[in-house]
TrEMBL record:
The keyword Glycoprotein does not apply. Residues 216-285 form the CusB-like beta-barrel domain. This is Efflux RND transporter periplasmic adaptor subunit. Residues 1-26 form the signal peptide. Residues 295-352 form the Multidrug resistance protein MdtA-like C-terminal permuted SH3 domain.
């Protein structure tokens, strides 16, 4: 029994020694191969921070800088309303009329009342003058004279009241005519002729000719980031070659209840004639987003399912992976928001063949 065990050990011992020797030699060979492999050539760049201008584009419309809605001051039935959208009007031009029968009747009554008051004033003055003469001669009493004085003053007041009523009647007649208060273009109209309208009801909306605005609906975060007085380039949507410059002159104090955007008005400087009222335009503005880091798109790789770059240690020429956060990117350039600092060196070519701790050789320098 003991002889068999001894024989087995004697047989397997040399085999185990040979296998162990082979493993040791293989490991040594790998270490030798790793140590002797040349550094991988790469290209690098040094990180710099630069001020970044972010272009923003919005679509809006052209409106008059000053619009006014015109309406009658009194209620009545429309007798004539021939204005149309797009018509040009001049200051003082007749736009619409109301039926004036009631107002003309009131005017006639006011004239009659003034004539009656003037007749009474004439009679009261004559009586006053007679009483004044008789009092001086001693043929009347002072009580009669004072009564004549009071009657004259009352008649004078009645004449003044009648004159005021006549002036008011003239105004009411003039209110039956609606005239433009400034030159411009009709951009909206109200009820047609024949309808009964109320005082203050819009009959026409006039865009005055003293300026134009480009109006945009802007999200709240963009409104907060836009500096005051920023210059905006406005161009026609259907013809980008037609452009005008402008500056933000008004921002709505309250957001729209439905869209939650703010209405922003851009005052246009010398807009071309092609930018007609109601035209669709694009507004472009560049906003400074602060210092940013831009790197070539070729430097970006993916490690741990996240964007990353290879950082080069210039003292040892060894690379290490680092995850970064991307702000925006295109085919040629990537803007990094976090993960890199100015002065660091990153690999821009050969990133796909690297692994952590690998020694590299920067092309154009000594190995």
């Amino acid at each position: 029994m003991c002889n068999r065990r001894t024989t087995s050990r004697q047989v397997f011992a040399p085999i185990l020694m040979v296998a162990a020797s082979a493993l040791i030699l293989a490991a040594c060979g790998r270490d030798t191969e790793t140590k002797e492999s040349p550094p991988r050539p790469v290209r690098t760049t040094t990180i710099e921070k630069r001020e970044s201008l972010v272009p923003l584009t919005f679509t809006g419309r052209v409106e008059a800088e000053d619009e006014v809605s015109v309406a009658f001051r009194i209620s009545g039935r429309l007798l004539a309303n021939d204005i149309k959208v797009g018509d040009r009007v001049e200051a003082g031009q007749l736009l619409a009329e109301l039926e004036p029968q009631n107002e003309l009747s009131g005017l006639r009554q006011a004239k009659a009342a003034l004539s009656a008051a003037q007749g009474q004033l004439t009679q009261a003055r004559n009586h006053y003058e007679r009483q004044e003469t008789l009092l001086a001669q001693g043929w009347t009493t002072r009580a009669n004279f004072e009564a004549a004085t009071q009657a004259r003053q009352t008649a004078q007041s009645q004449v003044e009241a009648a004159e005021a009523q006549l002036s008011s009647a003239h105004d009411l007649v003039s209110f039956t005519e609606l005239r433009a208060d400034a030159a411009g273009k009709i951009i909206a109209t109200g009820p047609p002729a024949g309808e009964v309208v109320q005082a203050g009801q819009m009959i026409a909306r006039i865009a005055r000719q003293d300026g134009r605005d480009a109006v945009f609906d802007i999200p709240a975060q963009m409104v907060r980031s836009a500096p005051a007085g920023v210059q905006v380039t406005v161009s026609l949507t259907d013809d980008p070659n037609v452009t005008a410059q402008g500056r933000i002159r008004q921002i709505a104090a309250q957001a729209d209840a439905v869209t939650r955007t703010f209405e922003v008005k851009v005052g246009l400087t010398d807009p071309p004639a092609a930018m007609r009222l109601g035209a669709t335009v694009n507004g472009r503005v560049e906003i400074n987003s602060g210092p940013t880091i831009d790197i070539p798109a070729t430097a970006l790789t993916r490690i741990n399912q996240q964007p990353a770059v290879w950082i080069l240690d210039p003292s040892t020429n060894v690379v290490a992976a680092r995850n970064v956060e991307i702000l925006r990117f295109d085919q040629a350039q990537v803007t990094v928001s976090q993960g890199l600092d100015a002065g660091e060196i990153i690999v821009t070519a050969g990133v796909q063949a690297l692994h952590p701790g690998q020694r590299v050789r920067v092309l154009g320098s000594e190995p």
